[in-house]
Amino acid sequence: MILKSLVYSSLDWAACDVKMSGVARLLIVQTINNLAILLIIVAIISVIFVIYNQQALEGAVIEAVQNYARMIERNPNLTEEEKKVLIEQFEQNLRYKFGLLGNPVQKVYNMMIRLLTLDLGNARQIYIGASYAIKDQVLLALRNTAILFTTATIITTFVGLFIGLYAARRPQGLLDRVLSISAVFSASLPTWWLGMLMLLIFAFKLGWFPFQSKDIFIRLSELSAAYQAGEMGYLTYLLSKVYTWIYYMFLPLVTVVIVSVGGWAYVVRNIVINRMTEDFVMVARAKGVPERKVLFGHILRASSPPLVTIIVLGLVNSLGGAIITETVFGWPGMGLLYWVALTNSETLLLGTVTYVTVLLFVVAVVILNFIYALLDPRVRTGHAGGISPVAR
Amino acid sequence: MASRPKSSRRRFEDLRRGLANLAREFRRSKTGMTGLTILIILTFIAVFFPIIGDPEAIDNWTNLEYWQDNPKKAPPCWAASDAFRTVIITRNNTSPTGAELVTREWMTPDGRKVSSFSLLFTVEKKPPTNINVEFRVSYKKTTRILILLERPDGQVVYLTKNPFEGRGTSVKDVFGVATTKFNGTVSKQISSYVTKPKNVENFLRPWLESNGYKIGTAEISVLTKSGFDILFAKLTPNLFNQIEYLPGRYNLTIAFVSKDPDSSFEVKKIVLVGGCFGLAGSDKYGRDLLQGLLYGVKWALIIGLLASLASTLIGGVYGVVSGYAGGVVDEVMLRIAQVIYSIPVLPILILLFAIIKPSIWILIGLLVVFGWPGMAIVTRSMALQLKEETYVEAARAIGAGHFRLVFLYILPQILPYMFASIALSVPGAVIAEASLSFLGLGDPTILTWGKILNEAQNAAATINGYWWWVLLPGIMITLVGTTFILIGQALDTILNPRLKR
After folding, report:
1. How far apart are the CA of A315 and the nearest CA of chain B, in angstroms?
2. Positive or negative CA dihedral for A58, A63, A68, A73?
3. Residue B454: pLDDT band by 50, 70, 90 thresholds?
């Protein structure tokens, strides 16, 4: 995150494509770009798979052929020649049966299609939800991850903006110093480790929150069943629903927010401090615009495009850490699926989870690019010609 | 022609002076010097680990026998003042501090030889967590054994049958060696002997029932878990819900009763396993976590520095070349960098290491493969500006080639920024390795902090409250990260004065 403070203005993620005209063009280019990235990653995953499968099955074929050879070795009615032919036929059949013959490029292509359409068959067990299908399990996990992650991002964004803006108002002040320190820590501690510490303090020592959040959706459906059966009034139902959410989601949410908010607020601070020296801010101040309005109306507005860029990049960076954090808390999302797929050697499930994780963030990038386009007046009005990265 | 070497020398002189300035300002930065000091200490630990640490411990890290006498899952001693401190009694040292071994031998009237070993020790607040005994024995006729514990409250707990009344308990039941003839070493952990369901039924149950306790299925299941602790508990009515320890002098007697008058029994080693261990505690195999923490410094520095150094250098050169080249070449190079930049690294690494055998060098390589574009995008935009500077134009005018312009005129200007970037990207690499190891995808031949945390997670450390096992390795990861961030931030502030304000 802090590295980004060095590079933020030169990254201009979206701006590098802004050469010609307006919003639509930009968005189309961006979306195509991101789809290309997605395709490349799917191709990488598929290649890894095809090679892995090929190796695993190749081993199985060799073993089976050796067994077969040993079996017919004892048969006295066959000549050496016949034996050789039989073994060769056996091997060819096996290779055909296992799908080892054929063009590897074709196989990678097939695998890519299967991944893109989530047509992946069944997992060996039900790890999450109520269906064996890999597709259903992964989509359910995706939903749960999105719930946790979106909430965390929204909270982080607003809290970070607030802290960053106020720290920028008085550089070297108390808040600014605290922010610098917390930014240092948030860049150097693993999110999942903080999660373990949170569990030790709030679940083990104090007993306020549960160790595992796995049960949250079961509890919620029990609640709604009880409500439907008329066992409780609407208000009680609503309150216990809110309670259940907070009870299970509080620790993972707070952990992710704590780790990401420091770095993010520090970036906000740096960008805002840079903006503060610009002419339009001085003019606004000279005109007698109240400081609050200068801060939120003028500076924040002008800083919003690079800030959105940083949010996007921050998301990308924290997604991996957040996913491992899920395994610590047992949040029934992608992270937990990663964990069970790893421990049960469900390679296909693992590949799918990887693909969907990538998909999740590509979608996030596309959405934030839309927001970017809406925020940057140069993009909005179509006069986008002149954005040149500011290097220092 | 003659002017070229001269001008290049001047370039280097500029660079040298620039770096000297940077160093001077860095020395004035408080955060920077703090970071540098910690880094020097860390490097010292990494380099001199064979002297300040215990390399033997690391060599035997996976050799679980090496660790068997250590307390398992024990907190560090500075944090557990009431824990029993480990006492080791050997043949040469029969009365170390905290315990005393009394050996007696006599013949019974019916011609049996009794070798009795009484272990006297004082429990102040908490008892030992286990007692490991190891004897060197030799006998050629039937040999029985007696184990009993005398408590400070006068109670005597029989842990075997009485060999002087009836058949008694054979050596086989305790040590698993032949009852009639054996020559060699026998050993047993008393805790696992006591909590064996058969022994709970035969010995603990009668003892507690004689004290008026009602023993049902629930109580039996408590006894099979914490029967050893109950040996040292006050006999309160609430015994099975909350153990309160009985302080005082205990006497554990182990006696061999052999029909063979020429038999011999000797203590090889008796360990009263304590409830705390060292400065950083121990894990579930009793391994000294302090050694793991110290040893981990080396790999954290290697991973962090190698990955960040290589990716910054590659990215830096790539970016400068791209910016300098301009036009279509620049467009294509930038696009490639951006595609790689937007790949989420960790998911891909997880998938990859789940399939291939994890190796630290492959990991470092992949961190570089995915890590260089960040720097490249920055240096490219810097190069775009620098190539328009007059001194570059002047050099071009005297006929400097592309290679020369890139490496001697543009790159040296960007070098200081690359230093900052190297420092700032170390924590990312360290955390990436820790994350993979935490998922069990680390290099199996190398001990890292992430691996220790993985073992903690597998042992449900958070649920059981083994805080030292979680806290300390994470602090080390954070410390390494913080060190480099402090250095990087100091460089960053020097190079971007606007951030100070």
Report:
1. 10
2. positive
3. very high
ipTM above 0.85, yes or no: no
- Section B206-226 average pLDDT: 85
Q: Are B320 and B381 in contact (CB under 8 A)?
A: no
What confidence tens digit (pLDDT) does each residue in A317-371 have? 666 667 788 888 888 888 888 888 877 777 788 888 888 888 877 777 777 777 7
Quickly tell me which residue has 């052999």 as its tokens.
B258
Q: pLDDT (tens digit, 9 = 90+) per residue, A227-262?
A: 888 777 788 888 888 888 888 889 999 998 888 888
Question: Are the beta carbons of B420 and A6 separated by less than 8 Å?
Answer: yes
Residue B100, judged by CB atoms within 10 A of its CB (0-12, 13-18, 19+), counts as middle
Neighbours of B231 (CB within 10 A): 22
Q: Closest chain A residue to B434 measured between Cα atoms?
A: A190
pLDDT in tens, B334-389: 888 877 877 778 888 888 888 788 889 999 999 999 889 888 988 888 888 888 88
pLDDT at A3 over 50: no
pTM, entire model: 0.81
* Shortest alpha-carbon distance between residue B22 and chain A (Å): 16
C-beta pairs of A335-343 under 8 Å, 24+ apart in sequence: A335/A145, A336/A127, A336/A128, A336/A141, A336/A214, A337/A127, A337/A128, A337/A137, A337/A138, A337/A141, A338/B350, A338/B439, A339/B439, A340/A127, A341/A127, A341/B354, A342/B350, A342/B354, A342/B439, A342/B440, A342/B441, A343/B440
Taking the Cβ of residue B102 and every Cβ of chain A, the question of whether any pair is shorter than 8 Å is answered with no
- ∠ at Cα B431 (B427, B435), nearest 5°? 175
Residue A39 to chain B, least CA–CA distance (Å): 11
**Length of chain A counted residue by residue:** 392
Cα(B440)–Cα(B57) distance, integer angstroms: 22
How far is CA B395 from each of CA B11, B316, B387, B410, B416, rounded to the nearest angstrom? Answer: 11, 21, 11, 11, 22
* Contact flag A320-B346 (C-beta cutoff 8 Å): yes
**B357 in reach of chain A (CB within 8 A):** no
Helix/strand/coil for B250: strand
Q: Residue B300: pLDDT above 90?
A: yes
Confidence of residue B7 (pLDDT cuts 50, 70, 90): low
Q: With beta carbons less than 8 A apart as the criterion, state whether A257 and A155 touch.
A: yes
* Facing A16 at nearest CB: one of B334, B339, B453: B334
Q: What angle do CA B228, B232, B235 make, to 5 degrees?
A: 110
Question: Which tens digits make up the pLDDT trace of A186-206?
Answer: 878 888 999 999 999 998 888
Nearest residue in chain B measured CA to CA from A196 = B462
Cβ neighbours of A339 in B, within 8 Å: 439
Residue A60 makes CB contacts below 8 A (sequence gap 6+) with A98
Alpha helix positions (H), A189-299? 191-198, 216-228, 234-276, 279-287, 291-293
The encoded tokens of residue B383 equal 């190069």
- Residue B399 carries which side chain, given as an amino acid letter? G
Instruction: List CB contacts of A349: < 8 A, sequence separation 6 or more.
Output: A123, A127, A134, A137, A138, A337, A340, A341
Q: DSSP for B2-67?
A: THHHHHHHHHHHHHHHHHHHHHHHHHH-HHHHHHHHHHHHHHHHHHTHHHHS-HHHHHTTT-GGGG
Contacts of A180 in chain B (CB under 8 A): 489
| Side-chain-side CA neighbours of residue B407 (13 Å) | 6
Q: Do B410 and B320 form a contact (C-beta atoms < 8 A)?
A: yes
Which among A182, A189, A349 is the top mutation candidate for probing chain B, defined by the most B β-carbons within 10 Å of its own β-carbon? A189
A153 φ/ψ sector (left φ>0, alpha ψ -120 to 50, else beta): alpha
The pLDDT of residue B38: 94
A308: part of which helix (H) or strand (E)?
helix A300-329
